[in-house]
Amino acid sequence: MSGINYHNRRFALIGHKDEAKLGQTIFYYNQEGDLVWGTLVGGTVRYGQFVATVDEAGVLDLRYQYLDVYGELRTGISHSTPELMDDGRIRIREVYEFTSGDRYKGVSVVEEIV
């Protein structure tokens, strides 16, 4: 199992092309073994959920779904790579692709909130 444990951690978006809209989105993570799951709310996200598997390096193979404030259901996949920061918090680089709507692909960064 990975040296990184995601259980009971919160993350906020710090790097994304739509950060002004999505920057208030908070991601709540839980973990049990190689299973990681959680919710996202805030910003343009009314409510969402995600589920992932985590490998030995802490890399997440993640699937997400959410309802935005415009009434649109969004789904997607993400390959998320963690980095331990000097202060002990986790930063995650997410390479994602929507599987609904415009099928947009991109990269975002989230950091742990303490």
Overview of the structural elements:
The structure is a single chain. It is built from one helix and eight strands. With 114 residues, it is mainly β. It has one domain: Avidin-like (Lipocalin). An eight-stranded antiparallel beta barrel has the order 1-2-3-4-5-6-7-8. A hairpin with a 4-residue loop joins strand 5 (60-68) and strand 6 (73-84). The radius of gyration is 13 Å and the shape is globular. The mean pLDDT is 91.
In short:
This protein is mainly beta and 114 residues long.
Attribute tags:
1 helix; Lipocalin; mainly beta; 8 strands; eight-stranded antiparallel beta barrel; globular; 114 residues
Number of helices: 1
The helix fraction, in percent, is under 10%
When the domains are counted, the total is: 1
Q: What integer value in Å does the Rg equal?
A: 13 Å
- Under the CATH scheme, which class? Mainly Beta
Largest sheet properties: 8 strands, antiparallel, barrel
CATH topology: Lipocalin
Shape: globular
The whole-number mean of residue pLDDT values reads: 91
